[in-house]
Predict the 3D structure of the following.
Amino acid sequence: MSNDTNPVKTKRFKVPHTYVIICMIILLAFIGTYIMPAGEYQRVEDPNGRTVVDADSFTSVPQNPVKFFSFTEDHLFSSVHRGMQDASNIIFFILIVGGAFAMIQGTGAINAGIGKLALGLKDKGSMIIPVMLFIFGVGGSTIGMAEETIVFIPIGIALARALGYDAIVGVAMITLGASAGFSGGIANPFTVGVAQGIAELPIYSGAMYRVVIFAVFQIAAFLYVMRYAKKVKADPQISAVRELEIAEKDQIIDLSELPKFTTKHIYVFITVIIGFVAMIYGVMEHDWYIRELSSLFLMMGIFASLIGGSSPSKASSDFVLGAKDLIFGALVVGIARAILMVMSDGQIIDSLVYSMAAGISTFGTTIGALFMYLVQIVLNLFIPSGSGQAATTMPIMVPLSDLIGVSRQTAVLAYQLGDGITNLIIPTSGTIMGVIAISKIPYEKWVKWVAPYVGILLLIGAVFVAMSNIIGLT
């Protein structure tokens, strides 16, 4: 009989790196070119000038498997470089916008503005919760604010504790607000802008429908946070992070030490507002696309940094740091586009779309739209980058939506909601993991608290996707 009393250590499963997952998909696509029947649809131009699939034109073609390596032809490994080239406009758009917003943030205007707001509402009790939810919701909906929220977490927690709440409330009024905006995506350049570009839709079209979604998500967040906040204030013992509150009772941030809000900061905000007004006008009246939007964001960053007092060297450093923060997502877009390169070379992408359409069409268009939504929810666990997920899935979902009778706007909506909502809970999200790290809230406690809310939003999202299909949102 063995006397070994050492417990057997079992390795916990870890989700592979996003790049590993995408490379695995590229490899599966490569293998698929050898085993899947090749086929193609004819593409035609519709009355709106978009390239669409002719539903009755699918034909089988000779098998054309992609080569593993070749000295003279495109092959598996060259697909990544080609994918980068094919997605270069999106990649550079992400980097420029990220750099520009870092230049704006580098002026200190955003931090000082939030600080002034926080101090102004400190004595107004529960007013702080809806206001903070809305402010960060607007940020998520217009500039795709996600990782940027991390720096505000200490302020949110300090405010919440000063008002008799706990760290959960401080984190929630920032992250749930930003998530509602990011998911609703009224003018989110990294999700809606990229997806609509791939779908050949006018940039930010269908915005009013997304405004309604944003409003509903904000209301849901407000009710969920306020319900919990009132309970915690009435009885601190029921806090979901009671142990943390006891341990951190002496670690209170002095709100008076926040950056002062100056006249320069006001001018920075005016510059940003003018920029967004120009963007709305350009998109609506002049059909602006990614190139024009990139140039506008760059102008906003440059002028804001000049007005805000940043030196040219500091503004340049801010730009580089901002672009650096988004290099992960930008590269995901290019690497993910390699999937499309392989499938297109092997002429199996249309075969996949044909098979999916044949299976889904028997259930009706609304079920088809909800199927798209479900696929995006699942994929978000593995490809948490919004723009990367758009680059991976929209080239397949767009022709699929054409074939089964779902509008392209609904396909984009299914993507943005499927991508955004679960970012609050998935362990592959760098943003939420950063938030809980800086807040010191254990991941399992955060999941237990926020899971019901995520479930509610997923159901609401399903309703909006179904309604979008029923009304024929365009």
In short: The chain has one domain: 81-471. The chain is about 70% helix and 0% strand.
